[in-house]
Amino acid sequence: MIGCAVGPTHGVLFTSTEFPGQFNQNNDVNSTKTGKGCIHTVLSGLFAWGEAGAGMIAYKKGIKKLATIDHSTLSILSYDVIHIYRNYCTIVSGE
Q: What is the CA radius of gyration of the chain?
């Protein structure tokens, strides 16, 4: 679980990244709806909560066909497994 809420780049004091995930290779789904779900951890995982599963996010937002699944992270005062706050988000779009 080391670095589980860290994206492609990572800073010790502050990190905020967005990065691509998967997309519909047929390119036949419009991005008319979007949804976002996040997992949050505080004090090196002492407290954790959230939902970042693409399927659950799509279901809750009424998205039946997925166009893209992207990701973002945010971390504050984070080094290796020691951190004050981290989150990992999944962003879905589709119809």
A: 14
